[in-house]
Amino acid sequence: MRSHYSSEITPALEGKEVALAGWVHEVRDLGKLKFMVLRDREGFIQVTGKKDACTEDVLKAISSVSRESVVEVKGVVKKNDRAPGGVEVSPLSVNVVSVAQSPLPLDVTAKVDADIDTRLNNRFMDVRKPDVAAIFKIRSAVVSAARSYLDGNEFIEIHTPKIIASASEGGTNLFPISYFDKEAYLAQSPQLYKQMMMATGLDRVYETTFYFRAEEHDTRRHLNEVTAVDVELAFIKNEEDVMNLLEGLVLSMIKAASDCKKELGILKKDISVPGKALRISYGEAIEMLAAHGKKIPSGEDIDTEGEKLLGEIMKSERSSELYFIYGYPLSARPFYTMPGDEKYSRSFDLEYKGVEVSSGAQRIHNYDMLLSQIKAKKLDPESFKYYLDAFKYGMPPHGGFGLGIDRMMMQMLDLAIREVVLFPRDRHRLTP
């Protein structure tokens, strides 16, 4: 139906016949002149019908078509300095493929504002807006960059089950599902399966995946269905090897987003690529917060308020928006986290602009130690039998992380998380 996208129509095509297809963004009828702005994935093109140059059928089609109808236009490219991009199309034919009903549930021209719930209820139309579409074009580039980086570092992409028989992390925030005559849940993460893969010889794996967390929250940064890049690698010395990999991955993703100049221009956003991610210990982070009036008892996790304040401190005092917090208390980490000593773990979080975007660690690879930690967390070893078996027959030192794609997008573009997910799922939204 089309020979060119709108962005490909340039003055260099003067006199050439082209075929376009898209949606009717606007129509203006000035009597002898009839204008139709056609919108497609790449932008806009002006179609100009002149009474002395077009058939009556073409002029009638332009003047009578409803906004957001799908049309196919064949015509000749003409230079016009007053038209967007300095070019327009003189139509030879206009075929209305699909008529849009009126009134529209949303104003795609954005002249009339709509609240976020109205937009999400009509997401199929909301994404027709160039600024909303730009978000998901950037997101595609970011995920593509993540895959390219990991592929280039000899990782193998895997796909693990999303229907599981027991908690991945020993928590209670699980979505139970009906699975024939058995008890089952939606996966919290691919954690246990990733670790099992370390015993197979495929010692560098990743997955672009979903997390399902049954947590009741109402914030700008949480969802109940989350997308992430989950990574595990073996034959490491310690967690620093994992942190170095994560740092390179995140910087490549931010760079890919910063290269989306057209989309960032539409959004009126600018993304700067940070330098090397700084490293601060958990103890140092607690001290920094205390010095600014935020006291967190030693041994407790840093809450959302603390993360935000620490982000402000790191930016103002150390000129850093990307930084690791390492050495978290062992009590605050999952059972599979490698201890550093009796109190602290070989774990870390990666913070970006005051929000945790990734969490990871060196894992326990010794069977007896792992079994002991499962019992210490008051979990039933029998529930993890399939997982524990992988540690009985040769498991190398390994570690990994989960990196939230949604949170990365949220922080890069300074938007609420529901803005950067096509069909977000939270405690109030299950449709569309």
Structural features, described:
- This protein is an alpha+beta fold and 432 residues long.
- It is 29% helix and 26% strand.
- The protein is built from 12 helices and 16 strands.
- The protein has helices spanning 56-64, 116-121, 123-126, 130-152, 191-197, 239-258, 261-267, 282-291, 304-318, 367-376, 385-389, 405-413, and strands at 17-29, 33-40, 43-50, 70-79, 87-98, 156-157, 163-164, 176-179, 182-186, 204-212, 225-234, 278-281, 322-326, 347-352, 355-362, 398-404.
- An 8-stranded mixed β-sheet has the order 6-10-11-16-15-14-13-12, with helices on both faces.
- Strand 8 and strand 9 (182-186) form a beta hairpin.
- The model has no long low-confidence stretch (mean pLDDT 95).
Order of helices and strands: EEEHEEHHHEEEEHEEHHEHHEEEHHEH
Alpha-carbon Rg, integer: 27 Å
Taken as a percent bin, the fraction of beta residues is 25-35%
Low-confidence stretches: none
Rounded mean pLDDT is 95
Q: Helical segment tally?
A: 12
The rough form would be described as elongated
Report how far the terminal alpha carbons are from each other: 29 Å
| Helix percentage range | 25-40%
Main β-sheet, spatial strand arrangement = 6-10-11-16-15-14-13-12
* Number of DSSP-assigned strands: 16
Structural class: alpha+beta
The biggest beta sheet is recorded as: 8 strands, mixed
